[in-house]
C-alpha cells in the first residue's frame, strides 16, 4: 500500500514538468481564442495533495524532508519527536513491512486540535539507521500521514552524524529558513517541542535511553515537554540528568600556566617550541596569535604530510637562525624525541607547551567547527571537515605526559579559553554530542 502511494507520488512528480509545458502551450493558444478556457487549466488545489517526500536537504542530502497536505508557515510551531512520542518506538529494526502504532490513542485528536489552534506541526526525527531500514521507514511515513488526513505537517529526519542530528540544530535552522521564505519569523516563546529522550531518571526503573530531545530544545531555545506531560497532562518529571560534555562544566583557569615566566623569551632568542595536545584544542590559532608575530616558523604535519618533512623543515629553519613551533599533537616521548635530539644537536633550547583540554572538549570543538558555526561565520569561511574520532582515541591511547627530563627547558600548560564573538560563543556553548558517544 505504501509502495503504491509512493510510486504514485513519484510518477506525479516525474510527469509534472512535461504536463506543465503542454498545459502552458495549449493555454497560450486558447488564450487567444477566449480567456474563459484558462480557468479549466488551473492545477488541482494543493490542499488535496497527500504526503510527499521533497528533495532532501544539506550538501550530502542527509536530511530527509517531507510534507503532508500543504502545511502553512506559522509564528507558532508545535514540534514533535517521532519515535516514542507520536508513534511507539520501533526497536525491531529489521522488519521490512512498515508497521506502526500511535504512542497513545489520543495522539491524532491532539494533533488535529493543535493544527486547528493555528500551530505549524513539524516532526523532528533522528533516523541514523542502515539504508535498508531507512527505506522501510520512508514507506512508513505516508501511512502515518494517511491516518492524519486533515492534519498538515512537515517532517525532517536526520540520517547521518552531522549538523542535522539532534541535539544539533540543523533541522530547526532549515525550518527557520523555509518559513522566512514565506515571510514568517518563528516566535520561539509561542512554540514548543515534545520528545521522549528527556534524560528522566526513575527509582528502581530504567532511565530514559538518552536526553537528546531535551538538549535539542535547550539548544534551539524552545519550551520542552515530554509526551506524558503534553499528551497525558501529567506533571513535569523533574528528576532528569543531561550527561555528556557541556561548555558550562569547564573550570575557569588562567590561559597559560605558569605565568611567572614570559610566554616568549625576553629578549627574544632562538628556540624550538613543541606543542602537545589533542586535535581541535586551538594549537594553530595559539601559534597565529603568539608566535607568528615574532616570526617563528610554523611546522605542521597536516600541511607537510610526513614526519620526515617536518623534521627536515625544522632543521633548515634552525640552521637558518630561525625559531620554530612544532604544531603537531606530539603524543608520546618517542615522537617528541625527533625534535628534542635535533634541538640538542644544534644547541638550541626547546620548550614544551601542553594543551591540556580533555578528549570530550576536543571532540566538542571538532563538532562545533565542522557542524555548528553560527551562520555569521559559516557563510564567510570555507567549511571544515570533521576530524575522525580515531584521531582522538589514538592520541588518548598512546599519550605520555611530557616531562622535563625528556630534554625540555620548560613545560607550560595552555588551558582552553574560548576566543570569539558572543554569537560564536552561543553556538559553541550548545550541547553537541550524541548521548552515549
Ligand atoms: Mg524518540
Structural domain tally: 3
> H/E order of the elements?
HEEEHEHEHEHEHEEHEHHEHEHHHEH
Radius of gyration, in Å, reads: 28 Å
| CATH structural class of the largest domain | Alpha Beta
**Largest beta-sheet characterization:** 7 strands, mixed
CATH fold-level label of the largest domain: Rossmann fold
Q: Which structural class is indicated by helix and strand composition?
A: alpha/beta
Quickly count the helices. 14
* Unreliable sequence segments: 1-47
Instruction: Write down the overall mean pLDDT.
Output: 88
Query: What's the multimeric state?
Result: single chain
> How are the strands of the largest sheet arranged?
1-2-5-4-3-6-7
Cofactors, ions and other ligands in the entry: magnesium ion
CATH architecture of the largest domain: 3-Layer(aba) Sandwich
Structure description:
The protein is α/β, with parallel strands linked by helices and 437 residues long. The protein folds into three domains: 1-43; 45-232, HAD superfamily/HAD-like (Rossmann fold); 256-428, P-loop containing nucleotide triphosphate hydrolases (Rossmann fold, 3-Layer(aba) Sandwich). It is 36% helix and 12% strand. The chain is built from 14 helices and 13 strands. The chain has helices at 2-33, 107-116, 131-146, 170-181, 212-220, 227-232, 283-291, 301-304, 307-319, 333-345, 359-371, 375-378, 389-398, 422-428, and strands spanning 52-53, 63-68, 77-80, 120-126, 153-158, 192-194, 224-225, 256-257, 272-276, 297-299, 324-326, 350-355, 410-414. The strands form two sheets. A seven-stranded mixed β-sheet has the order 1-2-5-4-3-6-7, with helices on both faces. Helix 1 (2-33) crosses helix 3 (131-146) and helix 9 runs parallel beside helix 10. It is elongated, with a radius of gyration of 28 Å. It starts with a helix and ends in a 9-residue tail after the last helix. The relative contact order is 0.10. Mean pLDDT is 88; it is low at 1-47. Residues 81, 83-85, 195-197 line the site of magnesium ion. Residues 1-29 are annotated as: Disordered. InterPro entries: HAD-like_sf, HAD-SF_hydro_IIIA, HAD_sf, P-loop_NTPase, PNK3P, Polynucleotide_phosphatase. GO terms for molecular function: ATP-dependent polydeoxyribonucleotide 5'-hydroxyl-kinase activity; double-stranded DNA binding; polynucleotide 3'-phosphatase activity. Residues 1-12 have a biased composition (Polar residues). Keywords: Kinase, Transferase.
